[in-house]
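Format notes (please read before filing issues)

Several people have asked whether sequences and structure tokens are stored in separate files. They are not. Every record keeps both together, in the order shown below: the sequence lines, then the token lines. Line labels are part of the format and must not be stripped during preprocessing.
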Amino acid sequence: MKSKLHIFSAILFTIASFSFVNSSAQQLPCSIGTHQVFTDVSNEKPVLLNRLGTSPQFGEIAKHTADGAYKHLANVHRRNTKGSRKEIDTFLMALGYNGFSDPAFSAAKITPSILKKGKTGWMGAYSRGHKYKWSVLGNDFETFKIEAKDGSCFAYIMKKCGNAFFDPLDNPKCTDVCDPKCSNYDPTKCPPFCKTQTLTFAGNGKIQASDVINSTENLPVVVSYAGKTLCVGEYTVPVRLTYEMTASGDVNYAKTVQVCDYGSGIPANLSLNLPVNINYSLAASDINVGEDGKMVMNVSKKQYKTLKKVYAACPANVATANATNTTLAANKVSTSSEASESTSSTGNVKAGGNNCVKQTLKLSGSAVTEDVSVKQTTQEVTLIGVYKKVGKLQAGETAEKYMCLGAYNVPANTSLQYALKGSSNLDQIIEVCDNGSVKPVEEISVPLTMTNSFTKQDLMVGDYGRVYMPLTKKQYKKLSKSFKRCCGDGSTSTKCF
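Then the structure lines:
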């Protein structure tokens, strides 16, 4: 009799199972009501679960791996502890399988995961049968995602206790508005979105230039005392101009665009570097030394009388006859590119699929500065007369005899005609929302501002501030009555006499 009862129970179980499979086969996986765990969102206050394992359903799974989970469920299914075989089979049937033995169900359908604190859903337990309670996780827990046969939805089995878990909001069939298979599919709420982004392009470029310009000036020397003048002569004098210049270029441009956001989010502002190049060239230089092109020796009455015995009076028009002081004149140029209009728009307007297009922003800017740097200075020049003795020399005596004729302030001015050309270019590819008027390539003009400064523009007249004029023996002797002998460098050491 006992044997017949077992056969009768098996028949009933088979009929019930067949009836259930047949019923669930007519519904989509994860559909509400296909299994106790697949229940809709509850309005009840969820039970807070700070720990798991107090009421295990399928038992703790030792390893957090897909193979470990599959083997564990296989053992539980085989042993059928607490009627777990049926619970596992019906759980998997609700996911679209024919039960645990369905060849489609394998470790490949299991993914180790972590459920975050605050996750709500229906959690399984065992207390005189398999039961499910609306719960909220109080901590992060390791779990296994069990994917439906057709991949359209999923549920979980917790690692700690082996309890089934399902969040109705995870069901793409009824909650994912971006799944075309969902009944409430709404493409306007799905990426890509059109979002406003401000692109700021900024850059800076700097250069330094320096040079030494060596040349000569024909410098007439004139003696002056009490309105009277003596023409000493004209001498070729070396001059050296040393300069240093710095220049910088700055560009700053902002453009507001509608870019495509595929769901990961985009920053409202994005800064990009824009390179700046500067080229410098010196077109011409000019040096003028002296008062109206002459070096003037302002002397005392005694010195004038002595010099008058050597040099003749200047013509009446000497004040302007040798005037050669000029300054370079340049056609001053200062140009800079103007900024293109910055397109501005706001809002998150839906851009569907093909409405996102690649666009190349070709940014370019330029600036030109042409000018003349002029500097006026006063140079102290020591005038040294040189007489070369001919004949026998005494022991230690040098042939060159020097006489310091005084140190005089000589005005001078220097002019540097230069040109600066700045440029800035960049191709930036962005993905924008196409409203029907987006150009594949957009030319953009950016403003480029240049500044420059000559930090050094120094002039040296003569041989380190000394001008040498030849003297005859007779001139040397006459001038010695008012002027003193000196060394070749202008010092008064007796060792060089």
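For reference, the curators noted about this record: The first helix runs from residue 2 to 24. Residues 1-26, 319-323, 344-354 have pLDDT under 50 and may be disordered.
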